[in-house]
Amino acid sequence: MARRIVIxxxxxxxxxxxxxxxxxxxxxxxDPAQQKGTAAENPFGALDHLMDEATPDFGASDQAVGGDxxxxxxxxxxxxxDHPKALTENVPYSTCEKAEGxxxxxxxxxxxxxxxxxxxxxxxxxxxxxDTRDCSCSGKAAPVGLVEEAVQNNEVTEGKGWxxxxxxxxxxxxARQLRDQVEAMCGxxx
Length: 190
What we know:
The protein is mainly alpha-helical. The chain has 2 domains: 1-49, no CATH class; 93-186, no CATH class.
């Protein structure tokens, strides 16, 4: 294994030397392909022709480029254009102050209970924005009391020992689904 590391390091060093030295040679007006010399003077002479070759043109049309851009979009666009319009201007959630009660130990602890509450809160925030059609900080920083209601509903339906990981993951998945709707309504990132 040590031999592989040494060989890999040597190949990396040679590659970096080539990448660095070739532009320097050309900047000085010396084209390495035209230099006469031995392999000891120019160890990369056999590779110089690769740098001089034109890159292949794959004939990408405007339509193909547009298709590539559509493919590379990170979040899918909403299919329906009949989504409700927001009543306020969109403000990114990252610039907003956290809701009162969110910074408490109940939410911020490193426990499964707190993690479940944070996942529920991510869903509650998305749903609150859709319900109020408020894309400002007051709409995105949903009341923490809504999380407590969801926890109580889970305790009623599932019992006190409800599976916090599974149900929290369900809420997180629902929140991701709602996020596209919220961003379409607000006209920008959550």
